[in-house]
Amino acid sequence: MQKNLQQQSGFTLIEAIMVMTITAVLAAGVAVFLRKPIDGYMDLARRTELSDITDTAVRRISRDLHLALPNSVRLPLAGNSCLEFLPTTNGGRYRADAGSPLAGNVFTTSAALSSFDVFGPLSAAPAAGDLIVVYNLGIAGANAYSRDNMATVGAGTTAALITLNPAMQFPFASPGNRFHVLSGTEQAVFYACTGVGVDAAGNGTGTLFRLSAYGINAAEPAVCPTIATIPANTPILAQNVSACQFTYASGVTERSGLVSMRLGVTKSNEEVNIYHEVHVSNVP
After folding, report:
1. Tell me, what's the pLDDT at 12?
2. Can you tell me the distance from the alpha carbon of 70 to that of 85, in angstroms, rounded to the nearest whole number?
3. Which of 17, 112, 217, 268 has the CB geometry, 3.0–4.6 Å to 167, for a possible disulfide?
4. Core vs surface per residue 226-248: b (16+ CB within 10 A) or e
5. E strand map for 28-94
6. Residue 6 domain-assigned (yes or no)
7. Could you read off the pLDDT of 203-252 as tens digits, one per residue?
8. In this structure, are strands 189-194 and 256-267 parallel, antiparallel, or unpaired?
9. Using one digit for the tens of pLDDT, what is the confidence trace for 21-47?
């Protein structure tokens, strides 16, 4: 009897090893050509992230400074990693003359005021507890930090009528009949960098905070806030900060000031630095 044998085919162990060896050699060759483009992409993505962080932070600070109360920007007596100012929420012109016929609530410095009319009117009515400042010069007798020229908004205030509670006698009138509105909740604002530096891994160690709602302090700050004095849940604008510096020049004519900012962020030895200047109106 003849026996039929079924033929079987497949890879031998030697053939499989040869295929794996050749595949590994080809993969290594391809990896050599792909490594630089991949590294370049990762570096570009990291630089883009760092640029976005720094650009967003300085733009936020710039937006706030454009709304700063005239002559309210100040730096601490020691250190340049922070600055303080009083942000405004609104502003307008007050009635300085009763007109003809005699009517209306006129602003005056000769007596304590409980209300005055607004020419405009305002885009929105100030809330009770907000603050009204008239002719802030940033000097003794006309300094909003000392509340020399600051009053509190009372109930019944509208976009056309400001009521004050308690009544306030302002020391000076504004040559342009101008007044500014500050938030009674936010009040002053501090932008402060803490822990600025670079660690052994090439990462920035600093953090940029935005502090607010801590009150209005008459005394000029002696030093910048530290991480130990910053309350929990304070908004963070940037992390991995490796450089942070603020300077302020009030201007020769005192009509405008210039805030200069330098902010650097570092990750994995990749650093992005931004230098930005903001003009601040000091016309009260």
Report:
1. 78
2. 9
3. 112
4. eeeebeeebeebbebbbbbbbeb
5. 82-85, 88-94
6. no
7. 999 999 999 999 999 999 999 999 899 999 999 999 999 999 999 998 75
8. unpaired
9. 878 777 776 666 666 766 665 666 778
Residue 136 lies in a domain: yes
3-state SS string over 184-211? CCCCCEEEEEECCCECCCCCECEEEEEE
- Provide DSSP, 207-253: EEEEEESS---SSPPSS---TTTSPTT--EEEEEEEEEEEEEE--SS
The C-alpha angle 250, 260, 176, rounded to 5 degrees, equals 35
242 and 212 both lie in a single domain: yes
Q: Which domain holds residue 267?
A: 50-85+187-281
Residues 191 and 71 in one domain: yes
Q: 80 and 207: one domain?
A: yes
Same-domain check for residues 193 and 178? no
CA distance 199 to 181: 43
165 found inside a domain: yes
Number of domains in the chain: 2
pTM: 0.83
Q: Which of 152, 167, 182 is the last residue of a domain?
A: 182
- Are residues 177 and 205 both part of a single domain? no
Compute the distance between CA of residue 226 and CA of residue 215 in angstroms, rounded to an integer: 17
What values do phi and psi take at 46, rounded to 5? -70, -45
SS3 state at 89: strand
199 with 240, same domain? Answer: yes
- At which residue do the structure tokens 């909740």 appear? 185
Structure tokens, 41? 């992409």
How far does CA 198 lie from the centroid of its chain?
Answer: 23
Question: Residue 272: left (phi > 0), alpha (psi -120 to 50), or beta?
Answer: beta
Cβ–Cβ < 8 Å for 232, 207: no
